[in-house]
Amino acid sequence: MKEEFRFSSRFSFQDGENEFSRILSEYKKKKISYIDLTLSNPTQAGFQYPFEAIRHSFQTNDLITYIPDPQGNELARNTISDYYRSKGVMIDPDDLFLVSSSSEAFSYLFKLFCDAGDSILIPAPGYPLFEFLSVMEGLQTIAYITKKENSWRLKATDLDPKILSKSKLLLIVSPNNPTGSVFGRSDFESVKDILKKYNIPTVIDEVFSDYVYEGESHFTLTDSEIPVITVNGLSKTLGLPGMKLSWILLSGPAPWKKKTKELLELISDTYLSVNTPVQNVLSDLMQWRTMIQTQILKRIQRNRAVLKQIIFEFDTSERIECDLPKAGWYCMIESKDFFPEEKFSLRLLKEKQVYVHAGEMFGFPNTDAAGRIVLSLLTETDVFESGLAKILEFSKEIRLN
Ligand SMILES: Cc1ncc(COP(=O)(O)O)c(C=O)c1O
Fold it and tell me: What is the pLDDT of residues 328-371, one digit of tens each?
C-alpha cells in the first residue's frame, strides 16, 4: 500500500534538489575545488573578529537571569538607539522590538498585517528569500519592477494602483540586494501620497545601510504621517549573523503606533525568541562595529577596484557591462553572453568550477538583450579576481564557438 504522508500544502513549490546544489555537493564529496563567488557569510570570509573580547563579554555578563520582555531588554534597545544616534538619527528605544533575525522580523510583520492568502509587494530585482518567507506565512507575493534606467530606484510609476489596492504591505530593501540602489528621502516623498491613498504600510529592510560608497548616502527613514517600519540587525551591522539579533523599528501616526505595539507585543510574547545572553552583551558587541565594518568595507572597495580594472580596462570586447554598485555587498555584471542566465551559470560551474548566482534568481527580467550574473563582493580579493578572469575567459570561449 502506498504510504500517505500528510504535510502542509505550503511546500508545493518544492520539486527536489536543484542542479546547482547537486553539483556543489558532488564537488564537496569528491574534494573538487571550485571558486565560490556567492559567499556572503562574513564569518567565513577571512575577516578578523575580536574573539577574545567577545568571549570575555560572555564570561562577565549575566547569561542566566531571565526577565522576559516582548520588546526586548531595555538596555539592548538603548544600545540600538545609540547606534542610530551615532548615525545622526534620533529614535525612541520604546519604538524598537528585538527579534532573532531579520527573517523573523518579516515573519512577525507578515502575521501582524496579513491573513493567509493575502498579497504583499516585493521588489524585483530583489532578495529571493522574501518569496520563501511569504510562502511560510501563506502569503502571495507580487513583484514591483524597478528599472535599470532609474538605477533600480523605486519610482512612483513602478507601483501599479490596481495592485496597491489589493496588497497588504510594501517591502523595500535599501540598499537593495543585489542592485545596491538606495531608497532616499526624495524617493520616499515621491511615493508617500500613493502609499497614504492606499493605506499600505511600508517595511524598509536596511540591513546593508552601513555599506554605502562614494556618491551615495543612506538615511534611516521614519515618518509621523504614514506607517514606515524599519528592519535591521547584527548579521550585517556587525557581520555576526550567528548572534541572532535583529530589530524592528516602528514609525507612523501615534494612534497607529500604539495599536501596532499592542499587537506586535502579542506576537513577540508568544515566541520570546531572542536569547538573554546576546541582549546582555549587545553594548559590548557594538563597540566592535567600526573594527569589523572597516574590514568588510575595505574588502568591498578592493573588489570594486578589481571589477573596475578587469571589466573596464581588460575587457576589450566591450561585451560585458557593469555599473559599479553604490552600496551593499553585491555586484552584477551584464552581457549577452550570459543569456540564458541559469544555463550560463550552470555551465560556468560545470566547465570552469566557478559558482555565481544567475540574475533570474533575483527577479531580473530574463531577456536575451542582457543576461546578468550576481557576485558577492565579500569574496577574498584574490579569489574574486581569478573568478572574474575565468568568467571573462569562458564568455569569450562561448562567443567563439
Ligand atoms: C536584504 C536582506 N535582508 C535580510 C537578510 C538576512 O538577515 P538575517 O540574517 O538577519 O535574517 C539578508 C541576508 O543576506 C538580506 O540580503
Answer: 999 999 999 999 999 999 999 999 999 999 999 999 877 767 89
> Which region holds residue 16: left if phi is over 0, alpha if psi is between -120 and 50, else beta?
left
Identify the residue whose cell numbers are 571550485.
Answer: 34
Say how many Å lie between the CA of residue 217 and the centre of ligand 1. Answer: 20
Q: For the ranges 6-20, 166-180, 246-260, which has the lowest average pLDDT?
A: 6-20
Structure confidence by residue, pLDDT tens digits, 99-111: 999 999 999 999 9
Q: How far is the CA of 393 from the centre of ligand 1 (A)?
A: 32
Q: Which residues line ligand 1 at a C-beta cut-off of 6 Å?
A: 40, 101-103, 127, 173, 177, 205, 207, 233, 235, 241, 246
Residue range 9-48+290-400, CATH number:
3.90.1150.10
pLDDT digits (tens, 9 = 90+) for 171-219: 999 999 999 999 999 999 999 999 999 999 999 999 999 999 988 999 9
Pocket test for ligand 1, best of 103, 131, 240, 244 (most atoms within 8 A of CB): 103
CB neighbourhood size of 25 (10 A): 11
User: 383 C-alpha to center of ligand 1: Å?
Assistant: 24
pLDDT attached to residue 368:
65
Query: Which grid cell sits at 176?
Result: 537593495
Spatial separation of the C-alpha atoms in residues 185 and 314, rounded to whole Å: 38
User: Which residue among 39, 80, 122, 129 is best mutated to probe the pocket of ligand 1, counting the most ligand atoms within 8 A of its Cβ?
Assistant: 129
Rounded Cα distance between 223 and 234, Å, is 24
Q: Where are the domains of the chain?
A: 9-48+290-400, 65-287
Residues belonging to the chain: 401
Regarding the domain delimited by 65-287, which CATH topology (the fold level of the hierarchy) does it fall under?
Answer: Aspartate Aminotransferase; domain 2 (3.40.640)
